[in-house]
Amino acid sequence: MAEKRDYSPFDRINGRWPAKGDRIFSPGRDAIPANSVGERVYRLGRGYKLAGDILVGNFLGEPCDHDDLIYPILYCYRHYIEVTLKEIVENYGQSVGITLSKRNHNLPGLWKLFPQIAAAYHNDPSDTAAVAVSDCIHELAQVDSGSFAFRYAQDKRSDALIPLEFGAIDLVNVLDVMNGIQNFFECAGLDFNHKRDMAD
User: Taking the C-alpha atoms of 147, 166, 138 and 43 in order, what is their torsion angle to the nearest 10 degrees?
Assistant: First the structure.
């Protein structure tokens, strides 16, 4: 049975204090983890993209949060791209002889495999949409090459501030561009899946 509260957990300011019996993973029916690798990878990618979208929505409604939310928004979107590219390589690369040589956070290295997979499935990896996605991935990697810049303030080796090579940005535009990237990846996956099934 749910605990009775005299406040809302969603209140921005509340007097909630840790209590005996608190558990992070308390039983409930709100969310169930995926029990297969394929579904888990799929939901991880979609979840990070959705989290970024929701944060942008909150960003618009709460101006006081702007300077806080920029980091998790950009991290969620960057991680969405990374997880999705890895999923595409795992799901569609192996059947055409393309695999991940090593696991890391290198977006340009992951992207480099995508045109090879697209070409193997008889798609034009130089079409306008693919070039636009490539440009966005390289732009993101230029700012955050190792998946650290949106998670940490300091370089772990030198303790120096990790520079962010951009000024003020339009997060609604980021959301809009990410929607295009998501549509591109989902359509590519559907196309690869269809062509692989036809070949089988």
Answer: 50
For the chain, strand residue ranges (E) read none
Q: Which residue has the tokens 């003020």?
A: 168
Q: Hey, where are the domains in the chain?
A: 37-199
How much helix, strand and coil, in percent to the nearest 5, is found in the chain?
60, 0, 40
**Please, what is the Cα angle at 181 between 65 and 168, to 5 degrees?**
35
pTM: 0.87
For residues 152 and 144, the answer to whether their CB atoms sit within 8 Å is no
Nearest to 107 by CA among 72, 75, 76, 142: 142
Give the pLDDT confidence of 99-119 residue by residue, as tens digits: 988 788 999 999 999 999 999
